[in-house]
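Technical annex B. To support the medicinal chemistry partners, we prepared a structural model of the target in complex with 5-S-methyl-5-thio-alpha-D-ribofuranose, based solely on the information shown next.
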Amino acid sequence: MSAYHPLTEQEAIQIAGSLEGFFPAGAALQCREIGDGNLNLVFHITDSISGKSLIMKQALPYAKVVGESWPLTLDRARIESEKLLLEGKLAPGLVPVVYKYDAELALTVMEDLSDHIIMRQGLIAGTRYPKFADDISTFIARTLFFTSDLGMNQQDKKMQVKAFINPELCKITEDLIFDDPYTNSPNNSFDPAIQDAAEALWQDNGLHFEVALLREKFLTNAQALLHGDLHTGSVFVTPASTKVIDPEFAYYGPIGFDIGAVIANLLLNFAGQEHWTADADQRGDFRRYLTDTVRDVWNLFDKKFRALWDEHGLDRIASETPGYKDYYMNRLLQDAVGFAGCKIVRRIVGLSHVIDIDRIPDAAVREKAQRLALTIGTSLILNNRKTQSIEEVIELANSAASK
Ligand code: SR1
Ligand code: MG
């Protein structure tokens, strides 16, 4: 079965059964393909006798969301499994355990997290996650610090940059996030009701200037090894646990991109609350929970990254020069704000939306949420280089929601 081909459920069972020491002898394995993402097959395999289970994720040679006309490298499966293993060392307990990687089949066998829920679904259901901000800030701070020039040997880092070159997946981001939404691209997809708002994006030169600067950072700033797609669909949660999945977009890029992804997706849910919480008081409460989480994610990240720098910083001049650390951290905040804005805008007018907004059944409410998200997204982009505090992000979201 070694030559690459997309697996059937039966073949997935065969591979799972041959994994040494995982399922007991006599296991009764069952399999379901449960992939609902944009790119891959995901097999859920359970043994109805022992109750043991695992996940097998297989990359397809094309983008599933579009079809075979959009070929995509299988090397992303290697990148994903290597990144998961590295994350498991740098941020133990915050990613699924990898049991096996099969390069030929572009297949990663990993821990089943079915006792968790995808965070986007949890937020839509109105669930709060008290551990999330602490866990995700630990994940971001540790995985980014220890893969940056501040926290790892700078010659080794250059070799790591090479191992994680990911041009095809980066091109998806470069196009879908940093180009298409700002022009009349055939990749775009949006509700006809917001045609005017989409066209306004195409014509706003001030906005394009900021997006061009952010795009340049994404293209050139090899600051740390990013997750690369850290939205709330890439996080499994329970109120007591957080697990980050799906790092196939990993590459060396600007640190603010991962932080911005988390902020963007909390704010997309904030915009979607137009529908998900019908009662106005409760909506205000849930929005406050979301903005409190945005604040906590940034503040805890800032505190933890600085502490890692103080304790483990390897770059003499960066560590000893007064003012440099504050300058660096403020630049990360500004980048995170700009990237968050770009990530919000693409989910409203570009390819691949989010269910926080798209599943709103009432067309008028959905339109209101879309316009709110666009106002928040564009304001974040336009203000990114002026931002001095995370409070400005929260004020901006609240003020857009109050109109
Ligand atoms: C063609 S892939 C579309 C999107 O799915 C992934 O989750 C990334 O966000 C990508 O931009
Ligand atoms: Mg993904």
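Notes passed to the chemistry partners:
The chain has a mean pLDDT of 97.
The chain has 15 helices and twelve strands.
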